[in-house]
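Subject: LRR receptor-like protein kinase

B.,
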Amino acid sequence: NHGDTNSISPEIWDGISPTAGLDGYEVNGHSVNQSYGGENLASEKGPMKRYPDQVEEKESNSVYQSQNISAFGAVVDRRTDGKVYTVREKENPPIQCDIYSGKWVRDDSYPLYPAGECSYMSGAFDCKKNGRPDSGYTQWRWQPRDCNLPRLNATDMLEKLRGKRLMFIGDSINRNQWESLLCILNTVIPENRKKLGSKGVRTIFLAKDYNCTVELFWAPFLVEQGSVNVGNKSKEILQLDAIEKHGTDWKDVDILVFNSGHWWTHGNKAAT
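Prediction pasted inline below.
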């Protein structure tokens, strides 16, 4: 985070093509391609999986470490093993709570946005549009054993993002989080006060009244990809020491969220 900014530079929109929504788009790791064409991906429906009402608690006994960082007006306390131990508002005293020790619980006040009605949700990720008949899966939230996590408030989130850029960088896990966040923020933004655009691996959502952007940069390996000639064949490689090309798009972003996962062992990549 490089500090508060008073305005979002219009230069971030250079070459960005406006789009009405993400429904029908698939990211393949190199570009954003329209692919679904309205096809119902749930043409082969099997029996619905039923989930238990509760998941067993995970026990944890760790010693506190007096290290705090500020994030969105909250304080994050860490344990001696480096894991986050508790999140609290700045003005409140710390609560001894391991946020990773808890269970998933049903909450009738959820979901935070109507399933199947968000234009920012990709077709492949929209369970309702793909034929799932029930809605109970949208009413789960994580409940730590010894404390409560604050409910995400869309208006409060936008206020804390005012004048800032938030960018998710990584693979489909981060894309899921990005799309879900857009759907939540969308519930409090008038239709003519938002803007969405994309170019290649970048997609930008702008909340005009808050002068903030929530962006996605698709980079499944985080580092750059290239190729070398081996004999008469071209072999794909990962350049583990190279992020300069990607990094030019990360400059001046206030908050960067990185994620990378299964791509590292996907297909032939495991053997390269």
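The CA atoms of residues 220 and 263 lie 6 Å apart.

T.
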